[in-house]
Design brief:
This protein has 180 residues and is an all-alpha fold. It has one domain (2-178). The chain contains 6 helices and no strands. The longest helix has 68 residues, at 111-178. The chain is globular. The protein starts with a helix and ends with a helix.
């Protein structure tokens, strides 16, 4: 039930993020003043991804905030229906990797694409969360250290790629259409 709640909430979050980004994109295309904000947002996403690649971890302040919230929410999980609700609420946890995936979903092009992107992220996460305890027993620190280092770096590379593509489309490709 926990994982079903997670998948549903992640998909909802991805759909909402994609609609919000689509609306912001439309607004910036209609309002010249916001085009700089749109470009700055993509540069910030690229910087976040670069930091993840270089440091191989999420920002420490984000990790601390997540642990603090979890400490308060953990007792609710044992209540009836708490597992499903906790899975749904999991999408609101401050987690850099989660919100990095939300940024990718936001740039996916539409509500359904964003929802599908985040559902796929949630399913992949569910597989790891289910297999993690078993793998932890097999390789303990080696498996976890490898996943943390390279998983975060791959997520950072994905952010850099998406932000680079968005910047290319906004700054190079669209102006070149006017030059034809």
């Amino acid at each position: 039930l926990f994982h079903l709640g997670r998948i549903a909430a992640y998909a909802l979050l991805g759909g909402v993020a994609a609609v919000a980004m689509e609306s912001l994109a439309w607004l910036t295309s209609q309002t010249t003043a916001l085009q700089r904000l749109w470009t700055l947002m993509h540069v910030a996403v690229m910087a976040w991804g670069l930091a993840m690649v270089v440091q191989a971890r999420q920002p420490a302040w984000l990790e601390r905030a997540g642990r603090s919230v979890w400490a308060r929410a953990q007792p609710w999980v044992t209540a009836p229906g708490g597992s499903l609700a906790a899975g749904f609420a999991w999408a609101l946890m401050p987690c850099g990797l989660l919100y990095s995936a939300v940024l990718v979903a936001a740039l996916s092009g539409g509500a359904w694409q964003g929802a599908l992107s985040m559902a796929a992220f949630a399913v992949g996460g569910a597989l790891w969360l289910l297999a993690g305890p078993w793998l932890w027993q097999l390789g303990q620190s080696h498996v976890n250290a490898l996943r943390a280092r390279w998983g975060t770096r791959v997520a950072g590379l994905m952010l850099i790629g998406v932000a680079s593509w968005a910047l290319w489309m906004d700054l190079v490709y669209k102006p070149s259409l006017w030059c034809r």
